[in-house]
Structures are given as C-alpha cells and as structure tokens.
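Notebook entry, structure prediction.
Reason for the run: the old model in the group folder had no record of what sequence produced it. Starting over properly, with the input documented here first.
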Amino acid sequence: MVRFSFCGVEMVALAHGALLLPARRALLVADLHLEKASWFAAGGQMLPPYDSIATLADLGRVAEQTHAAEIWCLGDSFHDSAGCDRLPAKAEAMLRALTARTRWTWITGNHDAGLVDRCGGAVVREAEVDGLILRHEADPVDPRPELSGHFHPKLRVSLRGRQVARRCFVASATKLILPAFGALTGGLDASHPAIVRAVGRDAQALVPVADRLLRFPLAA
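New structure, fully documented this time:
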C-alpha cells in the first residue's frame, strides 16, 4: 500500500491494481471482466470456469484489508452484458455479500454497456467523486481530473535478460488509468500509443512495490 497524491487528492495504490481514497474509504477497481471464461466457453474455447470466484475473492480480501465503505467499479465489470446471468451460485453469493455491505457503484464500460442492477449496487455511466471524474475510458479532451480503466496497462521491462510484465497505473497531470483487476485479463503495454494519446504528454507508469511507488516515464 503506497500513498501518493493525484490532483490534490490523497490516494493509496495497491499491488493488486486497486486504488483507495482513504478520506472516504472508497476502493476503486477497473475491468473485473467477470464471467469471461463462460463467454469464451459459449464460443467453443474452453477455459477453467473459476475466474469470477477468483476475482471476487481477491476483491473481498482487499475490501476487508482496507475497511472499504464504498466500492467503485470503473467499467467492464462483466465481460458482456449478460455475464451477471451466468454467475455461478457461489460467485453470485460472494458478489451480493460485497454489494450489501458497501456503497457499491457500477460504472458501465464498452463490454457491459447494457448492464442492469442484478446483484446490488447502483449503475451509472460516469460519476464525480471529490472533484475526480470516474469513467471507463479516458477522454483526452476533458481537462478535468479523471480516473478510468479500459486499457489494462502493463509495464514490460527487461530485467537480467528476462522480460518482466507487471500491471501498472498510468498517470499524467490530470489523468490516471487503473490496471485491470480481473483474474482473467490480459494487458496492453503502458507505452502503447493508444494509452499515451489517452493520457497526454509526460505520462508515467506507476508500479507500487512494498512502500515505494516506482515511476517509469513513457515516450510521448
């Protein structure tokens, strides 16, 4: 858990890829992609059907560790808009327990734009919290401070002759992109032009390690 400031708001970056706003005990996560495995299975590509349970177990642990009172999901929480209907009973019970004990808000993304309230919580397209705009995909022309997801950023570096990939946050002066939190999600290189265009110049990849936040400048 590493504290830092973004646009005057104190935050805590978590190694899992979540973000905490300690002043209001708000936990933010992006791109859970629940029921991704069952979506692929419907198309004939069989994957182990445990991604939702693994993701919700991780989220439950982080929520408990941070004493979260609010949870904000920044879009693509389900891999498709019908994903909630396919949740296995255990995963649905885990999700309902989380939405029952927190103020839970789903922000819709491109994968789950048609999401309706089926397991608790409120559903919105975007929101404003403590002067920060929360949305799924960064808006390059909006000058307001913004938190988003969508791109699943990962930092790839060469370490002792090996390529190492770590989920990371990507930040510029007014934009902060969260990594994907889901157990079955890939990642886009943090220096990919699409990410750099979304956040603007002087962007950095942020990697929380122990009590430090490592910063890696990204090419413009």
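Summary: The first strand starts at residue 2 and ends at 6.
The old model has been moved to the deprecated folder.
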